[in-house]
Structures are given as structure tokens and as C-alpha cells.
Design goal:
Distance between the termini: 75 Å
Shape: elongated
Oligomer: single chain
Order of helices and strands: HHHHEHEHEHEEHEHEHEHEHEHEE
Strand order of the largest sheet: 2-1-3-4-5-11
Length: about 325
């Protein structure tokens, strides 16, 4: 089967069939006639032929740090919510938190294997900036803010500021912080600065020193909570940069017979499913990850369609979700 034969069976022109497969405008009557023929014959247009003719692959490349992350999964779900109705397909590249792989995939995708890229970013080195500047296909950065680029990100600073303030309001006076590398601007730098400024603004600047840097895992949360508690005794609260770190910290504290929240309060970030089933349940921050994925791919599709975008950067809000791990009980020493 070819386009001419489909057109003859449907009683329309070849141009109408071409517009049908390329999401162009045709009347509903012609669209329905073509759809019936396509369904009856099982015809599928050649992707290779379409690419040669239109110079478009109808593919969107998504580069992400790790596929097993709950927050990343929600972002990808949001991307698919939009892409499934757009005629584009998704090509995923998992870097496994390797910045070198990130650069490799950016270069590979740029060689016209995709029409556009969504980068779920973690860090921006000088080499990253050089590669981004030289891209020939449009890119939208998701999860991080980078001046001069289209990006969708979250208000990490104020989320952590207000989470820290919550624990101070609950009576904590010696707060520890389990953070991540400062190379990650959103999770590492913005959240750390939110913590530091909150304790300083509320008269507890000494807490700025009670900090240990962890990796993005439960096991690291366990090990670094041990280090934090051994370095800075008598802590009455631990603020964590992610839910995974917080869950690891809670496991260590339980082993040390520390009552949560009776003796020490713990909070996370990310509102993961795992945090909802811990004992006690974890106080955390809910970010609109799925919505951010929808907005990012919507922005990219607008760029690809030639629309003029009024906004290059979108910063989304958050919601503090207080659960059992920060609810001070009566007669609690905290």
C-alpha cells in the first residue's frame, strides 16, 4: 500500500492523506474516511520515508539521571501524557547519574536522531554549557534553572526554608541537615541555602554547622545520619534534602532507640510513596513533578511548531505535607 492507493480507497486526494499522517488540517469527513481505510488495511506510513521527506523524526529525546527515581518517573509520566496525543514518540536515555553520559547523549541526540530534547538536569559543568550552546535542535531543561534556556523547575529554596521553619516552630533548637552535592543546583545548593537562611533568620545560626553531605540513596542516608549524630550530639531534628536520605536516617535513628518524633523530628523532600508507608510516616514536600513534565514537553512542542513563547522559564510551587515524623506529641522533650 502507498499514499496514492489509500487516497483512492478513501475517495480523497493524495495531499489529504499526506496531511492526515502529518497532523495537518483536513475536514472531519475526509479524516474519518481515511481513518477507516487505514484501519481496514492496517497501513502504516514509512517512518524513514517521512524523515527523508520532512527532515523530521517525530521523536523527542529525554535525558534523565536515573529511571528508578520516583520523581523522575512522575516527570516522564507527565511528558507521556502530552506526547501520546501529539504524534511524537519518546526516546529515553538513562545516564545513571554519570555527567559524561549526559554529554554523550546530548551530542548523539543532536545529530538529528530527534527533533527536540528534554534534559532532566542535575549539574551544569563548563562542558555542559559548551555542548548546550552548540546544539542544533531545541532543548528544554526540566528540574533545574539555567539562565538563557527554556526551563521548568521547582521552588526548592522556599520549600526547604519553610520546612526548616516548621521544625523550629515545633520546638527544635538543634537542627541537623543531610544534604547532597552542591554541584546539583536545585537539590544541593537551593535546598541547603533555604535551610541555612531559615535557621539564621530565626535566631539559630549555629545550626548552619550541623551539616553532612550524603548521596541520593537510603543507604547513604543511614550512614550519613550516623556520622551526623556522632559529630553533633543532642540533635532534636534532622532536615533531609530527599525522602530517600530521610528514610535511611530514620532507620539509623530507630536502631539507636531514638523515638521519632518523641526525641527527634525528621523531614524529607519529594513526597515519595515509600515515605507514606514508613513508621512513622514521613513529613515531606510535595512538588508537582508530573505537571512539570507536561509543561516542559508542551513548551518544546510549541517551539517545534514555531510558536513565539512569552515565557522562557517556569517556576512551580510546592506543598508541605506534614505527617507523623514531625508531629510533636504531648510531654515530648522536643
Amino acid at each position: 500500500m502507498n499514499i496514492g492507493e489509500i487516497a483512492k480507497l478513501a475517495g480523497v486526494s493524495s495531499a489529504a492523506v499526506s496531511r492526515y499522517f502529518n497532523n495537518g488540517y483536513i475536514s472531519e469527513e475526509k479524516k474519518e474516511a481515511i481513518r477507516k481505510v487505514v484501519e481496514e488495511t492496517g497501513y502504516r506510513p514509512s517512518v524513514q520515508a517521512q524523515t527523508l521527506r520532512t527532515k523530521k523524526t517525530k521523536m523527542i529525546g529525554v535525558i534523565l539521571p536515573k529511571i528508578d527515581s520516583a520523581s523522575i518517573g512522575c516527570m516522564v509520566a507527565g511528558i507521556l501524557n502530552v506526547l501520546n496525543e501529539s504524534g511524537y514518540q519518546l526516546l529515553i536515555a538513562d545516564t545513571q547519574n554519570n555527567p559524561e553520559k549526559e554529554l554523550e547523549y546530548l551530542s548523539a541526540f543532536d545529530e538529528k536522531q530527534v527533533d527536540g530534547i528534554i534534559l532532566i538536569a542535575t549539574i551544569f559543568t563548563a562542558r555542559h554549557r559548551k555542548v548546550l550552546k552548540g546544539l542544533n535542535v531545541p532543548i528544554v531543561i526540566l528540574g533545574q534553572e539555567l539562565s538563557g534556556y527554556y526551563c521548568v523547575y521547582h521552588d526548592d529554596y522556599h520549600a526547604m526554608y519553610n520546612m526548616t521553619k516548621l521544625l523550629l516552630e515545633r520546638g527544635c533548637r538543634r537542627l541537623g541537615y543531610l544534604g547532597v552535592t552542591a554541584k546539583d543546583k536545585a537539590v544541593g545548593t537551593e535546598r541547603y541555602e533555604g535551610f541555612c537562611n531559615a535557621v539564621t533568620d530565626n535566631g539559630f545560626s549555629n545550626c548552619r554547622n550541623y551539616v553532612v553531605i550524603a548521596d541520593f540513596t537510603i543507604d547513604s542516608g543511614y550512614e550519613k545520619a550516623k556520622e551526623l549524630m556522632e559529630k553533633y550530639s543532642e540533635l532534636d531534628g534532622i532536615v533531609c534534602a530527599t525522602d530517600e536520605i530521610a528514610i535511611g536516617a530514620m532507620r539509623y535513628l530507630k536502631e539507636q532507640k531514638k523515638e521519632i518524633p518523641g526525641q527527634i523530628l525528621v523531614t524529607g523532600h519529594g513526597d515519595s510513596d515509600l515515605g507514606r508507608v514508613t513508621t512513622p510516616t514521613l513529613t515531606t514536600v510535595h512538588y508537582y513533578y508530573e505537571k512539570s513534565g507536561e509543561l516542559a514537553v508542551g513548551m518544546l512542542l510549541d517551539i517545534l511548531s514555531g510558536k513565539t513563547l512569552a515565557v522562557k522559564e517556569m517556576k512551580l510551587g510546592y506543598e508541605i505535607v506534614e505527617k507523623e515524623s514531625s508531629r510533636v506529641q504531648k510531654n515530648s522533650p522536643v
